[in-house]
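Researcher: Good morning. I'm working through a list of sequences from a screen, and I'd like to move beyond sequence-only analysis. For each chain I'm collecting a predicted structure so we can compare shapes side by side. This is the next one on the list. No need for commentary yet; just the structure.
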Amino acid sequence: MSKTAYIDDPSQANCHICGKELPKIETPFVHLPRPGIFYIYSDFQEGLFYPSYDVDENKRLLFCPVCKNHEFSPDAKHCKICGTPLINQCPSEQTNLSGEFRYCPSCGDQTVFESRGLYEYLKEIEIPDLLDYENGKYEDYIEYEHWDYIIASVYVWEQNQEAYSSLSGTKAIRDDDSLIVFTADSAQKQEIEKHEDLLKTCIKEYGFAEINQLEVLIL
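Model: Good morning. Structure tokens for this chain:
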């Protein structure tokens, strides 16, 4: 089996990543970092990481993954800009699920997010070979290891939904006081550039680094 996932609900009947029926194991919750099993890898062998969408207490997306809109009415179930569903559901059981469920853990049917292809928007930018990229212009840069934490700080501490949604899927490299952010398209680039001062502040406060030059590049 090519897909693997960590299962921590003993009542779960189907894998929430691939939808396959889970094997019947007598004592699956042993010898692991936390109670659960890696389906279908053996003990101590790590499963693959599958990115998921952040949702609020009502299991609604924090922003639309298609158009990045984050302004929703209190009872909105679809994005007002592009119509994308904001709540992941099992169509068969009509149950609301969190942002990681590609398949219903109870019946194994595809969820709304999976059937609409929304997980394709979770693919992150791949940092290019810096020795060759732009004729080696950035060969002295290294991947900024705290970038995911900086993105989280924009939402959690600064509570800026617009900036947070614009940073989805991005990667960053750093060399001293210079930071390069890689993104996927021009619209996302413009949004990130609009929040340049906020990013520099977050990096200084939460990443303990001083960034004087920030550039956004499209891959």
